[in-house]
Amino acid sequence: MNTQEDFLNGRILLIDKPLEWTSFQAVNALKWAIRKKFGLRKIKIGHAGTLDPLATGLLIICTGKFTKKIPELQGQIKEYTGTFTLGTTTPSYDLETEVNETFPTEHLTNESIQEATTQFLGEIDQVPPIFSALKKDGKRLYELAREGKQVEIKSRKIEILEFEITRINLPEVDFRVVCSKGTYIRSLAHDFGKALASGAHLSKLRRTKIGDFNVDNATSPNVFKEKLEVNTPT
Hints:
It contains seven helices and 13 strands. By secondary structure, it is an alpha+beta fold. The active site is at 52 (nucleophile).
């Protein structure tokens, strides 16, 4: 059972972020639940690596003194699973925006799709999507994108340790990726489509691991709140 002191001294909480929740909403839900339970005016709480609203999966949330561990946790290797949809692209590289271009897929074979993964293994240069929270000249890139502004985005070095295709049912292709901090799976989807000369966008994403932490051991924000109410001594 968790006490007020546990949360203040520091806890690492594994949360399975629901679809369409922002990472901030998930942190806020836990913060309010803990504050309400113990009558706290404030408590330090934060997450170790954001997830897009259209992604689900593992969000590590640190409380109290453990918020100091956030930079270390953010640097951990991550694993994702999900789906690329081939033959179409979107400006955001995912389902946040509408399809803007279509491409042929008749030339694709299971072998060519599997083989294309090898181009992305190891250390590679990746350009983050324009629809991202990165900042340029004090403004977030997605704000500039929505204003229709052209922005030059510099590539960054990332590392893909594992990249496997787990199901092919065109136009959908399921994948599993193990990668370094700073990797954008949306950009990987876009670049993968380019490599296949078919275009692609990310249509489903789930973060399954961060370092040794696994989403199988995570709980939803609502279940966390329920358990806190029932199991914690006042």
